[in-house]
């Protein structure tokens, strides 16, 4: 809901106002006042000008507070162009589904889609995606089944809440809901109770397979994705670490093939506020990777790039 999004923006703004940045802006305004008084006192010692400036101390205070409020506003996007490649990587705070580009959605290795308390949560990214683009899972299941036709699977035994056919970690299916491309990538397993679990190594494996799939079978268009694995997949790593891994994996893939012009990693305002994610720190990391990653050329062919970690 929009009011929730605005509330989290205000919460981030308020947190910034309580930081050193706000205090620095206020003190800077009084420093400007003091400097003005000192200069005018030196040059106009026998005039009323210094006293006139002193009388405007309230104006300087209000100006300092206004500057502090402006400087502490939430930074919603940070973008950087990858060196030696016509590719831009962006980190944004906002709504995943209103961000233009082909969607990347994390799912499970059994490709369960039923939204229920015991399976796919309606609050998960997959649940929200299903509701917004399909209404229910029937048509989505049909598209998934088509995409999985040529992929081998294992059949899980025993009673389960979900499906029994398990596909390899990192399996990708391309969907086309409402004239928008979406890539479902398996990043977690579901146990017999419908509870998802994954690991950081599984995420790395899935990301590598995702980029290969898009490079071989995807359309060359902008990509937009959430912080995969940070929700119901229950990865213990903080979101900042997952974002850094997504960036490293994507940059390494860009060394071999050009499969998109822009990747946007979307952070929800809720996560930024609740988990105190510093987008500026992620932006510094992104800028470092984009500027100092090198791509080698050997015998006329491109080989794996070397991201600076």
Number of domains: 2
**Shape estimate:** elongated
Helical percentage: 40-55%
CATH architecture tag of the largest domain: 3-Layer(aba) Sandwich
Task: Calculate the terminal CA-CA distance, rounded to whole Å.
Answer: 37 Å
What's the CATH topology label of the largest domain?
A: Leucine Aminopeptidase, subunit E, domain 1
SS field, number of helical segments = 10
- Going by helix content, strand content and strand pairing, the class is alpha/beta
Please give the CATH class of the largest domain.
Alpha Beta
Tell me the fraction of residues in β-strands, as a range: 15-25%
What order do the SSEs take from the amino end to the carboxyl end, as H and E?
Answer: HHHHEEEHHEEEEEHEHEHHEE
CATH superfamily of the largest domain: Leucine Aminopeptidase, subunit E, domain 1
Number of strands: 12
Q: Report the C-alpha radius of gyration, rounded.
A: 25 Å
Taking pLDDT < 50 over at least 5 consecutive residues as the criterion, the unreliable ranges are 298-309
Rounded average pLDDT: 87
The main pleated sheet reads as: 8 strands, mixed
């Amino acid at each position: 809901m929009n009011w929730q999004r605005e509330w989290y923006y205000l919460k981030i703004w308020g947190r910034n106002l309580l930081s050193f940045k706000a205090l620095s802006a206020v003190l800077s305004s009084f420093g400007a006042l003091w400097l003005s008084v000192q200069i005018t006192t030196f040059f106009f010692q026998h005039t009323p000008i210094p006293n006139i400036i002193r009388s405007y101390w309230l104006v300087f205070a209000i100006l300092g507070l206004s500057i502090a409020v402006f400087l502490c506003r939430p930074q919603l996007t940070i973008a950087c162009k990858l060196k030696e490649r016509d590719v831009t990587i962006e980190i944004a705070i906002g709504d995943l589904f209103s961000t233009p580009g082909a969607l990347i959605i994390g799912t499970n290795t059994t490709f369960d889609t039923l939204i229920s308390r015991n399976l796919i949560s309606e609050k998960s990214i997959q649940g929200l995606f299903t509701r917004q683009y399909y209404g229910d899972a029937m048509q989505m299941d049909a598209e998934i089944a088509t995409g999985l036709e040529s992929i081998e699977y294992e059949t899980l035994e025993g009673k389960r809440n979900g499906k029994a056919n398990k596909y390899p970690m990192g399996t990708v299916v391309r969907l086309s809901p409402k004239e928008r491309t979406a890539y479902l990538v398996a990043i977690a397993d579901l146990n017999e109770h419908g509870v998802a679990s994954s690991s950081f190594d599984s995420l790395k494996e899935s990301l590598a397979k995702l980029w290969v799939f898009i490079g071989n079978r995807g359309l060359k268009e902008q990509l937009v994705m959430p912080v995969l694995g940070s929700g119901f997949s229950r990865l213990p790593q903080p979101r900042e670490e997952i974002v850094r891994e997504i960036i490293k994996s994507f940059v390494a893939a860009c060394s071999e093939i050009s499969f998109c012009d822009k990747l946007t990693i979307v952070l929800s305002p809720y996560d930024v506020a609740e988990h105190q994610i510093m987008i500026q720190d992620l932006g510094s990391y992104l800028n470092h990777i984009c500027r100092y990653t090198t791509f080698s050329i050997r015998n006329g062919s491109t080989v794996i790039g070397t991201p600076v970690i």
